[in-house]
Amino acid sequence: TPRICMPTLRSISREAFHTLRSNVTFQDKMLSHVTSTLRKANDQLRAIFTFGAVDRVAWSLGRLARDRGRRQGATILLEPQPPHQELADMTGCSRETVTRALKVLKRKKCVASDDGVMKSDVDAFKRNADDQLAGRGTERILAVLFAEELGALLQIRAADRARVMDALRAA
User: In 3D, which of 156, 10, 111 has the Cα closest to residue 168?
Assistant: First the structure.
């Protein structure tokens, strides 16, 4: 099961809250952050509940590559190599399952490890994804298309509606 992280709550004075509430720049940044966080959580839940273990590990490596990878030709380098427990937390798998999934990805030439650096072959990942689309992955794709999405309820002033909707569309 995925590790649950409890949020840290901060308390601010009423005066500070009213000051922040009237700051349009702060509101826009907060709205953008909340929207981005919800989209990432939705993406992660969709992967956890739709894909098998190997595909979830591949998905998590893709996210890490996008967020902190360094491209070198057709290879993306993750340095330092992500610990198996970090991948387990991202995918909802046990550490042992992640280790087995990485062995499968290594056999498919999608990933390799060298001196604390994980190397992901973009072309091999693409071939693996194409194989999924051509074969047994079709039913999973349908599940992704019709999966429930996370949502949020925002209470805003009517006068701010257009600005908030623009910020949500842009996020």
Answer: 156
